[in-house]
Amino acid sequence: NAGVTQTPKFRVLKTGQSMTLLCAQDMNHEYMYWYRQDPGMGLRLIHYSVGEGTTAKGEVPDGYNVSRLKKQNFLLGLESAAPSQTSVYFCASTHSPDRAHEQYFGPGTRLTVT
Amino acid sequence: GQNIDQPTEMTATEGAIVQINCTYQTSGFNGLFWYQQHAGEAPTFLSYNVLDGLEEKGRFSSFLSRSKGYSYLLLKELQMKDSASYLCAVVGSNYQLIWGAGTKLIIKP
I want to staple A81 with a disulfide (CB 3.0 to 4.6 A). Which of A13, A104, B69, B78 is the partner? Predict the structure, then answer.
């Protein structure tokens, strides 16, 4: 099992460019999450999905869109990148919400927007 | 509002014991957990408490008091590899996770 994988690992964008971050899990988990982590702050939930074909907004959804067309994949899109979106992005998955503590994280994507 | 407070940074000596505190105010509670995060890496699960009391797992223990909105993570026999950030998080009423900013633990020889 690969667990949770994320691509790419690093990316530098210019303001206004777009990109998609891919998260994939092979554990058959229903729930998937996208977080961002900034220095001095906790993980902040951007969007999440409770199953294939469903998505929901988290704490900081503005400027991001997501899709969950396949159960194993959760995509995070930035349509027009801004410097404020410079961050480390983590994807996570879990089997069910009552086991939310058993979140498995991907290795992270380090995004810099200049 | 909802918030989780934990110290920003702590320093301890190799071989010693350190306690990292976490206080929380959330709408609903379905458990509290601790994660360890080494610099540049993803968080990894350490412990989970849903009932009051102490949970022990090797050198690490975690305590919860729901009436006080308080938890701590106790690390014994500190090793240099324990230098990391320790994240406290609460499972809220809608089963979403509310994360603290993390405590950076520095271990000195």
Answer: A13
